[in-house]
Design goal:
Chain lengths: 300, 493
């Protein structure tokens, strides 16, 4: 018999898995890693996602893209708002995870609050950015001519390593508000709240496959992501020069758009604007002739 | 003249003995020097290595002029002069003053429009009617349009401060030499950048004429530098460490090389690359208009157009009649002397390009497609190609997948909207597309589902300075024209 009996209730530890197509599978590779915080405490057994996981996620994101972009922008806004609601309800859990990942309680509380607000900010943009970035163009001939934004398609995101929750949300929200789908590689050292955030996504009426979140080593996955022909754009948020060069070189394979968000303070309002939505939009211009009758004619 | 056919459709009768009398434009309006130097720092200077190359008239194969070949040292001189001009003049100049210089350039092009048109046609082989009515006026308008933006940039980017990128290296193709120069230079200057521009080696003359205008317009020396040369000159521009921005129009292959070459540098890029546009005719389309649009879509500028409608999709129910109309119309196209105002299809831009097109004609036949060409006679000298249709084309065929950049149309059929959207989007390119139907809701379904940067509905190959142009996917990135074209040349703070 043990000399002392612990009478307190044993804590149930959480299993952190990845998020692909609205499901929470383990990595197909069976690999894991154990991130430590600064005081050396193990954060958990996290999935060390493989190239195969990445490819699966990209394929699923591609399949989800058509119907996501076809949804009413108003509906996309409601889903983003629902995410904020879900996050608000689970604030305490995110704060604890951020604290486990070395934040002070004050920092953690602030990051979660700002994350919620950022989701709401983009929820509001979903049905408005088009009016801001589009134009009716005064051409000289008798044509109706207008330009609008359309989603680029599938966006690969290497999330900010330091602001593991707010950074991820700040990069993800404008991408999906604009009708893209994405595959996100979460912060390597601070992965906990990215996985918990996937649970928020899953409870937010977000269709499976619109956002896919992998944990693992960015340097293992970046090169495959930049190579992949079904990725239209790639967002990288660090200052690592060799990695930037690698991404840009490989991106040339199918002329991916490369966005470098490496000098952004995610805690400030500079990290949010409709310009971030525009970054993953293609501008499409449409022409149609205008019939001429009478002497007045018509013009747009 | 229209003749009533037994199947109750009207058919144009072309077997008439009446011929158009030649209506040649006079070449004497153009003053072309026997030799052109590099335009650097406001002056025409000889190339360091004293190398020159000839530019010829592709319609006659005669030499027009000898043009300087810029080497690495010349590129460096041009970049240094652009950097100096940026810091010394252009950065400090208020937008409204920059605007006036650009307006001035627009006006001077208009004043010398006829000369520009003649030189464009002599040097590039395009019909004089197109250079006169399209290339030159559109180029002048482009300067005029962007001039007005120079002092209004804060309205284009709300809540942001606008800063010029710096020195822009610009490399342009041979299909619309003056117009592409305008598309590149005008927005760059309006946003406060300085420029090093390289025209294509086969069509340098109108850009050099533009250099003369820029000199006459008293633009501060070095704000625009125009240097001639071939691929190695372009590579030296792309690799130059003191260039902040690369703007390139050309092939997708070269675009990819450029994206790789500038990887890891802080250079920004816009790439306007190849295309393989689908032009789609539905059974409810006004067929005669559609046929006219298809002809214009593929034979405009000999098909040397990145947004050419080179894949035609015809709904099965009207395939036969559309094909007959196309063949009839093909017969009426006048192929020959580009300087003749009656000419519809001029000379292929270069021998090399003619060989590329001919290679594709063979590939198409080898792959089992059926070739149909106009029966027109071709001039004995010069580089010419008959307007060509291919039927029985497989979706996987190279003539349906690869950019030919010539007067060659690959025709396929379809049954449903879903099918044609799938087929039209099944290409790595995404520059442009065309739709012909009389049904409004179908137009908007199609134009929103086609993955292309420019979609023409019931029209084709229309361009305007106010209208953004540029591609999705492997047709490049960035837009030229309109408000959206400004983004390519600014930092937002």
């Amino acid at each position: 018999m043990a000399t002392s009996v612990n009478t307190e209730r044993l804590e149930v530890l959480k299993t952190y898995k990845i998020y692909i197509g609205g499901q929470f599978p383990r990595t197909e590779s069976g690999r894991y890693y154990v991130p430590l915080n600064k005081s050396g405490k193990k954060l958990g057994n996290l999935c060390l996602s493989s190239r195969k996981d990445l490819r699966d996620a990209i394929e699923i994101a591609r399949n989800a893209q058509g119907s996501w972009s076809a949804r009413a922008p108003f509906n996309r806004g409601q889903i983003l708002y629902r995410m904020a609601e879900m996050l608000e309800g689970r604030k305490a859990q995110f704060i604890e995870e951020l604290i486990a990942q070395d934040a002070t309680r004050q920092q953690a509380t602030r990051e979660v609050n700002e994350s919620i607000d950022r989701l709401i900010y983009y929820a509001g943009w979903a049905d408005k950015y088009q009016q801001v970035i589009s134009s009716v163009n005064a051409v000289s001939s008798a044509h109706f001519n207008f330009s609008i934004g359309e989603p680029m398609g599938v966006v690969g995101i290497i999330a900010p390593q330091s602001n593991s929750l707010l950074g991820l949300i700040s990069v993800m929200a404008p991408v999906i508000a604009g009708g893209n789908t994405c595959v996100i590689v979460a912060s390597y050292q601070k992965p906990l709240c990215s996985v918990t955030f996937a649970e928020v996504l899953n409870a937010s009426d977000l269709p499976g496959g619109v956002v896919n979140i992998l944990t693992g080593k960015p340097e293992e996955l970046i090169s495959w992501m930049a190579d992949h022909l079904d990725v239209n754009a790639i967002i990288y948020c660090e200052k690592n020069q060799p990695t930037i060069q690698l991404i840009q070189e490989k991106a040339a394979g199918n002329l991916k758009r490369v966005l470098l968000y490496d000098a952004i303070n995610w805690n400030t309002n500079e990290a949010q604007s409709p310009y971030y939505i525009q970054d993953t939009q293609e501008i499409k211009t449409t022409w149609h002739p205008i019939e001429k009758t009478g002497s007045g004619g018509s013009k747009y | 003249m229209a003749v009533k056919k037994s199947n109750n459709t009207l058919k144009l009768q072309f077997d008439t003995s009446r011929q158009y009398a030649p209506a040649p434009e006079s070449a004497s309006i153009a003053s072309i020097k026997s030799r052109y130097e590099l335009f650097i720092n406001g002056a025409f200077v000889a190339p360091t290595e004293k190398k020159y190359f000839n530019t010829i008239n592709p319609a006659t194969e005669s030499v027009l002029s000898s043009v300087a070949e810029a080497g690495k040292k010349d590129v460096d001189k041009a970049v240094v002069s652009a950097r100096t001009a940026l810091n010394k003049y252009w950065k400090k100049m208020p937008g409204k003053e920059r605007a006036k210089y650009i307006f001035r350039i627009a006006r001077m092009i208009q004043e010398r429009a006829r000369e520009f048109a003649v030189i464009e046609t002599l040097d590039g082989g395009k019909p004089i009617r197109e250079s006169r009515d399209f290339d030159v006026p559109t180029a002048a308008n482009h300067f005029f349009y962007y001039a007005g933006w120079a002092d209004k940039l804060e309205y284009a980017f709300p809540n942001r401060k606008v800063q010029a990128l710096g020195v822009a290296g610009q490399i342009i193709p041979w299909n619309f030499p003056l117009l592409m120069a305008a598309w590149k230079i005008a927005p760059a200057l309006a946003t406060g950048n300085t420029v090093v521009l390289k025209p294509a080696e086969s069509t340098p003359l109108t850009a050099l004429k533009l250099a003369e205008i820029i000199q006459e317009a008293d633009l501060p020396p070095g704000v625009v530098n125009i240097i001639t040369g071939a691929g190695s000159t372009g590579a030296a521009i792309v690799q130059h460490p003191d260039i902040n921005k690369i703007a390139f129009t050309g092939s997708t292959d070269v675009g990819k090389i450029i994206q790789r070459a500038i990887a890891g540098s802080s250079k920004k890029a816009t790439l306007e690359l190849g295309g393989k546009a689908a032009n789609i005719i539905f059974e409810d389309a006004p067929l005669d208009q559609a046929v006219e649009g298809v002809i214009n879509g593929i034979f405009f500028n000999q098909g040397h157009v990145c947004c050419a409608g080179s894949r035609l999709y015809v709904q099965e129910s009207v395939y036969k009649i559309v094909l007959q109309k196309l063949k009839d119309r093909l017969e009426t196209l006048i192929v020959g002397d580009p300087m003749d105002k009656n000419t519809d299809i001029g000379a292929i831009n270069s021998k090399q390009q003619l060989e590329t097109i001919q290679k594709y004609l063979q590939i198409g036949q080898k792959e089992g497609a059926e070739m149909y060409q106009s029966s027109c006679a071709l001039p004995k000298k010069g580089f010419f190609c008959r307007p060509t249709l291919f039927t029985n084309v497989a979706q996987s065929s190279r003539i349906a997948q690869e950019e030919i950049f010539g007067p060659v149309l690959a025709i396929q059929t379809f049954r449903t909207e879903e099918e044609v959207i799938e087929k039209a989007n099944n290409t790595p390119f995404g520059l442009s597309a065309g739709v012909w139907t009389d049904k409004g809701s179908k137009i908007f379904n199609m134009t929103s589902q086609l993955k292309a940067g420019v979609v023409w509905a019931n029209t084709y190959n229309k361009f305007d300075p106010a209208s953004p142009f540029g591609g999705y996917k492997e047709s490049g990135f960035g837009r030229e024209g309109g408000l959206h074209g400004l983004s390519a040349y600014v930092h937002l703070i």
